[in-house]
From TrEMBL:
The keyword Membrane appears for this protein: yes
Protein name: Secreted protein
Bias (Polar residues): 1-11
Transmembrane recorded as keyword: yes
Keywords: Membrane, Transmembrane, Transmembrane helix
Chain positions covered by the region annotation Disordered: 1-21
Transmembrane segments: 40-57, 210-228, 240-258, 411-438
Organism: Pseudonocardia adelaidensis
């Protein structure tokens, strides 16, 4: 019971272009029910397609952020942390070797060489992963430039020390200052910048998808409104096409809500484990600095008055009456399952501090050889053995937190699997179903 406006108004000699314009004009302004239905259908299809486009773009950005954060950024972050550890440990081993006299123990030399080799390998790996325009890229240069200078000073100091020349100690001091003032700060800056980049990437992935949800809800509301209006107007059951379109949009929205909620929780876990590992890395760096100070004081025979560096570093780890310390901060941020590991680290740190006090008492009491034996020997009660135990427990705890980080990051990536494509496909299905439902209703007027 409707007018066939297309046939009554078409000029006999109409071209293809004018015919298309006429159809669009009829669609936009036609007064008949089919024209109204076509306009409604066009709005519904456009709304569903728009939801699909936003879903595709946002889903791709989120999955890319999680993938980049859990792989490239996390890898550079781990490289920076391990570089810092290797560099600080190399310096501690270099100074410890001087305590033994002219010929340093083979195990200390081997550990120093491993540290330098590990630093070099991780430096190359990190440089290969960092884009040229990454803010962290400049931090690589000071490490690569100054590391050969540092190793050259250490080798000169070793040679002079074997010959019995006191200038060896001066070279060793220069090497340690270079490490503390230029190389380690550059490694720490690289680690800090990657930690910030990781937080930013995970923050983007875990943010609420306001645009997708708002557009999706608007499309759903439009489809439901059209279906209800047509049912009331015709007194028939709901349109199959419009019902299918509404169902597809609902599934799309539920997919987004569930996926982002699960991913947000897992990313929060990953950031927590990364933060605990960073805090423990700081504790390990302080321990290594304390070890270097312990050895330097013995080499210089400066006595207990020169021991403030050790005290400051170990107090930063264990805390004082006024400051909680790094281990307390790690325990506050960690999951309850990590408490036992951190407690073991605290126990090992207390044991090393006690062994160090014994070493200082020996040195200050004129028993220099016995103090050196405590620092470099294998006596379980000596400072050297206690330091090795602390390093082992700290390393195991950090490795456990990094493994937990990787597991949480992988779980977040799994939760977002298909988010870039799946909801967009559902939006296309909704658009097609809406077009079918409206088209079927319009055909009834022919």
């Amino acid at each position: 019971m409707s007018l066939d406006l297309e046939s009554t108004t078409r000029p006999p000699a109409s071209g293809a272009g004018s015919g298309l314009r006429r159809r669009l004009r009829v669609l936009a302004t036609g007064p008949t029910t089919p024209d109204r239905l076509r306009r409604v259908g066009a709005v519904l299809v456009l709304g569903c397609l728009l939801a699909g486009v936003f879903s595709l773009v946002d889903g791709s950005a989120r999955t890319g952020a999680v993938r980049d954060g859990g792989t490239r950024i996390a890898a550079v972050h781990a490289d920076a942390a391990e570089m810092y550890r290797s560099l600080a440990d190399a310096d501690a081993m270099a100074t410890s070797g001087f305590v033994s006299g002219g010929q340093e123990p083979a195990q200390l030399r081997a550990r120093y060489d491993r540290d330098i080799a590990d630093t070099t390998a991780r430096l190359v790996h990190a440089a290969g992963l960092l884009p040229a325009d990454d803010p962290a890229a400049p931090a690589i240069a000071p490490i690569s430039a100054q590391l050969p200078v540092y190793t050259g000073l250490v080798e000169s100091a070793r040679t002079l020390n074997r010959l019995g020349y006191p200038l060896g100690q001066s070279n060793l001091d220069s090497a340690s200052r270079l490490m503390a003032r230029e190389i380690l700060p550059a490694a720490d800056e690289l680690r800090a910048l990657q930690a910030t980049a990781l937080t930013d990437a995970f923050g983007r992935a875990a943010s609420t998808p306001f645009a997708v949800l708002l557009i999706g809800l608007a499309a759903l509301a439009a489809v439901v409104d059209a279906a209800v209006r047509e049912r009331r107007r015709t007194q028939r059951v709901l349109s199959v096409g419009l019902t299918a379109a509404a169902a597809a949009v609902v599934v799309m929205l539920l997919w987004w809500v569930v996926a982002t909620s699960v991913a947000s929780g897992r990313l929060g876990d990953a950031e927590r484990h990364s933060g605990v590992a960073d805090t423990l890395d700081d504790a390990r760096a302080a321990v290594l600095q304390a070890r270097s100070n312990e050895s330097l004081v013995l080499v210089a025979r400066g006595g207990g008055a020169a021991d403030t560096g050790f005290t400051t570093a170990i107090d930063g780890v264990l805390g004082t009456t006024t400051e909680p310390g790094l281990l307390a901060a790690a325990a506050d941020a960690a999951e309850p399952a990590t408490d036992d590991r951190i407690a073991a680290v605290r126990t090992a740190a207390d044991e090393w501090r006690t062994a160090h006090r014994t070493l200082r008492e020996l040195d200050d009491g004129g028993l220099y050889r016995e103090a050196v034996a405590s620092a470099t020997g294998e006596d379980p009660g000596g400072s050297g053995a206690a330091f090795d135990r602390l390093g082992g427990v700290l390393g195991e705890t950090i490795d456990a937190e990094r493994a937990a980080f990787r597991a949480a990051s992988d779980a977040a990536a799994a939760a977002l699997t298909g988010l870039a494509v799946g909801p967009a496909v559902l939006a296309l299905v909704a658009a097609a179903a809406a077009a079918y439902g409206i088209g079927q209703r319009a055909e009834e007027y022919r």
